[in-house]
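Example for tutorial group B:
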């Protein structure tokens, strides 16, 4: 094992895998045999992702793949390429557009310019806590705000499923149990908007590639990583930074998208398109049933390992969500969106704000 690299370990998320069948071996069969009983030919689609099948994200994507097969009565078969085996995560959007894969995972944060309108979710730090409410906001946004889907269409892709991950948390090498403890610490985040917010609470925001975060924490190059809780635990960052500060009220407002090449989509039959819609509904429900238990298991595992786990108070979450930099981020985003040709970015923010406020009961 390379010195400083995270150790592979079995995380509690593997518990959920007991009810999700392994499809790695099946992929080879799918690629080689695409005839249905009676000689009908199945539609085989390739799918590129940058995650492994045995973690929270992989579970979400596996459930969707399985539901797509079920809802189409086996007429749609998906061959997954896990763990960036076909393309790196940042290459997938263009790769699906260009037909390297028929379908692919898209993280909006990877494309701050190409998916600027879609990045508007990140301008709202406070959002619904329950998985079901988060999905309601995300799905309503894509149905009620055409500019979001239009921006993806300009990249030659269409959203056929989306899911969410666990809320924001900071994992620290130092004893931090309050928002005030962020002051003066070097904290890594992936989103430019959240780097701005970390700066506003007195931290020194830093950008470090995800693959280097473990070693950066281990060597003291940084003091913390601020990201989704499941990502922290999956990468064993809490092992070298065992002070975990969970901001459950901060919903990690990034919908993780599964997209399909638009030309490929247009070539599907109406029945196949209907199977996609039904698979979205059923997969979302099945994953939601597992989500809460997976969150609880991660927290329990961290406590059992002797890590210090602290939950932010509502007052701390409100303070973070109402920092002056939140408004400044939105003004910057509006200006950049107009420069990029958006006609009414203010309306996009207002619609999204309304959906989030409704989910919070405001």
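The residue assignment follows.
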């Amino acid at each position: 094992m390379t010195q400083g690299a995270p150790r592979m370990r079995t995380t509690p998320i593997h518990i959920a895998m007991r009810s999700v069948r392994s499809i790695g071996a099946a992929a080879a069969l799918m690629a080689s045999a695409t005839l249905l009983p009676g000689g009908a030919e199945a539609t085989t689609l390739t799918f590129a992702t940058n995650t492994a099948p045995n973690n929270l994200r992989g579970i979400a994507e596996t459930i969707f793949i399985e539901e797509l097969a079920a809802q189409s009565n086996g007429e749609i078969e998906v061959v997954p390429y896990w763990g960036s085996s076909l393309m790196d995560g940042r290459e997938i959007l263009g790769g699906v557009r260009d037909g390297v894969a028929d379908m692919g995972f898209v993280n909006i944060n990877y494309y701050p310019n190409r998916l600027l309108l879609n990045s508007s979710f990140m301008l709202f730090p406070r959002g619904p806590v329950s998985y079901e409410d988060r999905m309601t906001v995300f799905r309503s946004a894509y149905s009620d705000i055409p500019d979001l889907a239009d921006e993806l269409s300009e990249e030659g892709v269409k959203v056929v499923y989306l899911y969410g991950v666990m809320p924001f948390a900071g994992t620290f090498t130092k004893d931090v149990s309050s928002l005030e403890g962020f002051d003066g610490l070097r904290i890594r985040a992936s989103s430019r908007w959240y780097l701005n917010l970390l700066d506003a609470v007195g931290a020194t925001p830093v950008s470090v590639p995800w693959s280097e975060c473990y070693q950066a924490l281990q060597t003291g190059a940084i003091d913390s990583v601020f990201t989704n809780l499941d990502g922290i635990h999956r990468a064993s960052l809490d092992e070298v930074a065992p002070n975990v500060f969970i901001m459950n009220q901060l919903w990690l407002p990034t919908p993780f998208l599964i997209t399909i090449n638009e030309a490929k989509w247009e070539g599907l039959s109406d029945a196949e398109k209907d199977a996609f819609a039904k698979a979205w509904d059923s997969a979302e429900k099945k994953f939601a049933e597992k989500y809460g238990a997976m969150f609880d298991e991660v927290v329990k595992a961290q406590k059992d390992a002797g890590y210090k786990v602290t939950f932010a108070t509502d007052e701390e979450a409100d303070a973070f969500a109402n920092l002056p930099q939140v408004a400044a981020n939105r003004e910057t985003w509006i200006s950049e969106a107009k420069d990029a040709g958006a006609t009414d970015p203010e309306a996009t923010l207002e619609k999204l704000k309304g959906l989030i406020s409704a989910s919070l009961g405001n």
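Residues 179 and 319 are 9 Å apart (CA to CA). Compare this with the pattern of hydrophobic and polar residues in the output above.
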